[in-house]
Amino acid sequence: MTDYPVNDASGDFEEALNEEANRRYVLRLYVAGNTQRSANTILNLRNVCEEYLQGRYQLEIIDIYQHPEMAKMDQIVATPTLVKELPPPIRRIIGDLSEKERVLVGLNLVNLDDGDQR
User: Fold this and answer.
1) Most buried in the list 79, 83, 94, 98, measured by CB within 10 Å?
2) Residue 91 pairs with which residues in a beta bridge?
3) pLDDT per residue of the chain (118 residues) written in tens, 0 to 9
4) Which of 2, 57, 63, 71 is nearest to 26 (CA)?
5) Which residues lie below 8 Å from residue 59, measured CB to CB, with a gap of 6+?
6) In sequence order, which residues have a C-beta less than 8 Å from that of residue 63 and are 6 or more positions away?
7) Euclidean distance between the first and final Cα of the chain, in Å?
8) Measured between alpha carbons, how far is 5 from 8 in angstroms, rounded to an integer?
């Protein structure tokens, strides 16, 4: 009887799952002033982050009136704008983030084709 090498990929699969579960998201939300729209956008984003990224995200909220240089650096032309810095690729979502499905797709947390959560 000949022994054939066995390629056990289960270890690789488990490692990939752990990497995905530990992936950190770095998010930057640009808003324009202390308005109700800004407050709603922040609340919408925090709700999504707490539900899908609990303990795995860093969120920076930037008021373009107080920090116009940062808006210029990130080439922000409309507010509110969410910039996902990490994990790659960089993504931008413009609007009040009230459409949860759109936010999840934009953050690459669900696959648009089959609704599969990550």
Assistant:
1) 79
2) 84
3) 555 455 555 555 455 445 555 689 999 999 999 999 999 999 999 999 999 999 999 999 999 999 999 999 999 999 999 999 999 999 999 999 999 999 999 999 886 555 555 5
4) 57
5) 27, 28, 29, 45, 46, 49
6) 31, 32, 33, 34, 38
7) 43
8) 9
